[in-house]
Amino acid sequence: MSFEARLADAVREAVRKTYGVDLDGVHVERPNDPSHGDFATNVALANARVLRRNPREVAENLVGTLESPFVREAEVAGPGFINFRLSPGALLDEVGALLGEGARYGRREPTGAPVNLEYVSANPTGPLHVGHGRQAAFGDSLARVLAAAGRNVSREYYFNDGGNQVRLFGESVSVRYAGLFGEEWPVSDPDALYKGDYTEEIARDLAEEQSRRLLDIEPDDALQEITAFATRWSMEDIKRTLARVRVRFDSFFNEKSLYETGALKEIVRELEETGNVYESEGAQWLATSKFGDDKDRVLVKGDGSFTYVAPDIAYHKDKWERGFRTAVNVLGADHAGYGPRLRAGLVALGIPADFLDVELVRLVKLVREGEQVKFSKRAGNIVTLDELLDEVGEDVARYFYVRSSHKTEMNFDLDLAIRQSDENPVFYVQYAHARIASIFERAGTGSESLGEIPTGELAPEERLLVLELLDFPRVIENAASRREVHSIPTYLETLASRFHQFYTVHRVLVDAADVRARRLALSAATKIVLRSGLDLLGVNAPEKM
RNA sequence: GGGCCUGUAGCUCAGGGGAUAGAGCAACGGUUUCCGGGGCCGUGUGUCGCAGGUUCGAAUCCUGCCAGGCCCGCCA
Fold first, then answer.
1. What share of chain A in percent tops pLDDT 70?
2. Per-residue pLDDT for A377 more than 60?
3. What is the mean pLDDT of residues A207-231?
4. Which nucleotide is nearest to A82 if distance is taken from CA to C1'?
5. Phi, psi values for residue A472, rounded to 5°
6. Element (H, E) at A57
């Protein structure tokens, strides 16, 4: 139980004793200024009006009746804050507990209803680009944070391998393939084809495997085979890039399977049964506007084929039937309208509105030589995630991607990212970790053979370091419940800074056994938390740099 | 026109009712008998987009404006 929670209980009890009132919301927090104590509460200020006393008087009374074994000092300050200073023994006990838990510190065992977290889900029509990189980094880190906070999370990638874009992609590769043998491939719309060099690469791989066999069979059959080959090729390519940047998934779901199992026809039938499907202009419409969407959506086109609406609803109904009770979709900001219309479709089927949650990741604006880089996958002028990783490395990329809130648009200055890569904050955090590793190497002891922490007065730098360490569980829980990963880097940078400050002022490996043991314990605890926090971001914690 | 998001230091961004608004980068100065100086310390910079409102207290909540981004397809 955190000190915040324990102090809040003690304060609540003091209020009950003094005023005979039960308060439900008692806020205890870490003050910005260390001279305001280790923790502080504003109860007196917040409730002065209800109690009809002036805030300072209330605070004085509460301090008088407050009982808590780990509080060394409680004082009234400013307009009526109560500032607490804890006893060193209580703080060090917590550090001891932290060391005992090791890598599990601040993390909980998974409980509760299963959560499905879907991210990236880029079409298998080409390599991942830098925009996908942000979604991948955010999604994977969010998955790690949710799991650490005890959510029962399952990570999923939806391969959109059944729609219009995939057909165009297949044609694009077919054109290249035919071209390799000096032949032409008929296409409906040459301007819509994918122009990237990778289509040529896929065609060459195909030619190597099949020679010109596919040019001598029925074109429809050939296109089907070529498309299958191309999407398989793309999926492998995407998975390879994701593995490189340490982004994991528990499952991959193929859109095509919805066609093959008949789930699509089934979903249309079910929607019709609810009475929310009607015909207009030759198409079948779903009345999503009845369930919170701006307007109705086409479910089945005039030519009898499906829009993306039916597969998406079928897919999410499948998530529901697999037992998930929350589905979080991490999507690019250009999918802003996706949530409401998909949710509307699900509600029409009787699935609760709060089942689906969408986290929109803002776009990555690429800047090179002061100019914004415009890119498009079809035009082929994309900057791929692999290219970025080649330039800045996996650690820098992952850290940089999640350092700012996913809700804000991000400027990725390629020149700056390369030039400043050794000044990136990730190195600052990693350096603290490597520094501690080197202390233990020199000390010749492992962090696991520390034993009891000798109690004693804590220097200001030690105290601030301890308080920061003890904040980690709260940081994880907040990040999970707010689904905001960027608070992890912020925390790690503060923690690294606290350690560097401590290290500069206090020598760890001193002769006095008590002091040495205590400082080794603080260092070991910091190392554990830094590694654990970096792991939440998929970033390495090196022993040496 | 409607919906969602954003506006904080020269730049990139934290802070999302609390005390004197912070960090990194950039600039300048200091710091080395001794655990990694990729560190630490200090100096300077802010109409927290603007205007009202709620409150003991607002960068934070509410309303209205201004500016920027994304969306509003029988694409996904």
1. 94
2. no
3. 95
4. B19
5. -55, -45
6. helix A55-65
User: Per the structure block, which two tokens stand in for A375?
Assistant: 């890119």
Work out if A404's Cβ lies within 7 angstroms of strand B: yes
Q: Which positions in strand B are less than 7 Å from the protein's CB atoms?
A: 3-7, 12-15, 18-26, 34-41, 56-57, 68-76
Kindly report the backbone phi and psi dihedral angles of residue A331, in degrees, each rounded to the nearest multiple of 5, phi listed first.
-130, 160
Task: Answer yes or no: is pLDDT of A378 > 70.
Answer: no
- Cα torsion A204, A206, A208, A211: sign: negative
pLDDT band per the 50, 70, 90 thresholds, residue A234: very high
State the DSSP string of A369-401: TTEEPP--TTTT-PPBHHHHHHHH-HHHHHHHH
Query: Which of A 53-92 have CB under 7 A of nucleic chain B?
Result: 55, 77-79, 81, 83
- Identify the three-state secondary structure at position A357: strand
- DSSP for A309-350 reads HHHHHHHHHHHHHTT-SEEEEEEEGGGTTHHHHHHHHHHHTT
Do residues A82 and A60 touch, judged by C-beta distance below 8 A? Answer: no
- Nucleotide closest to A31 measured between CA and C1': B19
Query: Cα dist. A480→A474, A487, A529 in Å?
Result: 10, 10, 17
Radius of gyration, alpha carbons of chain A: 29
User: Nearest CA to A156 among A328, A320, A310, A312?
Assistant: A328
Q: Helix, strand, or coil here: A195? A: coil
Give the CA dihedral A535, A538, A543, A544, nearest 10 degrees: -150
Pairing between strand A326-332 and A111-118? parallel
Query: Are β-strands A371-372 and A277-280 bridged in parallel, bridged antiparallel, or unpaired?
Result: unpaired
The answer to whether the Cα torsion of A386, A364, A424, A239 is positive or negative is negative
> Residue A259: how many CB atoms within 10 A of its CB?
16
Q: What are phi and psi of A86, to 5 degrees?
A: -90, 160
Using CA atoms, how far residue A119 sits from A132, A207, A306, A454, A487, in Å, is 9, 33, 23, 47, 20
Interface ipTM above 0.90? yes
Distance of alpha carbon A319 from alpha carbon A313, whole angstroms: 10
List strand B contacts in A 344-373 (CB < 7 A): 360, 362-363
| Crossing angle between the packed helical segments A164-180 and A197-210, to the nearest 10 degrees | 60
Cross-strand bridge partners of residue A224: none
Quick: pLDDT tens for A457-503: 899 999 999 999 999 999 999 999 999 999 999 999 999 999 999 99
